[in-house]
Amino acid sequence: MSTSLQDVLILGNAPIKDNLAAQVDAFERVVRFNFCAGMPVNLGSKCTDLWLTGRGRQAAKLLQQPIAVDPERLQNVVITDPPAQPVMQSLFRLIRRQGKYDHGAALLAKFASSQSGWRVSKETRKQLLKRLHTYGKPQYKPVCPSSGTLAIDHFLLQGHRVTITGFGFQGWKRHPWDLEQRYVAELVDTGKLQWLT
Q: Residue 87 — pLDDT band, cuts 50, 70, 90?
């Protein structure tokens, strides 16, 4: 993993109609998630960091289906779920609880040609969720921060210059979207983060 400060663009999965291809591909690092919103032409083709969910049906699809990412450009693959407990995984397999089954190790193996592959720890998710709770009471009881907010926090902590686009702050109700939106707004207001314009 590079230690030099870089210009990082984090692309959320909210719909984007504008043609941003040239701007996206000009960044040193481009972070995308899961199926990368289909890698539409208007959002360029560069992907240096791929953040993937490791559990459930979507992870199983990610494992089976190709993802349109150039392996020559791919530097890091990150599984956003922490390592699973082996005993619980055996139980989930036995009772066919596909939504809980972990495919993280297999996904890391699929993208083994990348320079680095790792998993977000349980402690990292817990600490970020704790900080998000300082922004108020969430609409629903959250399970964990979204992958996008985890990525924002990760790259800011490394000291990179971070730009975002395609963040709609909606989706699975167990992410604290309202708190994440307030967190991002504060980062923008204090000059620590910027939107792609």
A: low
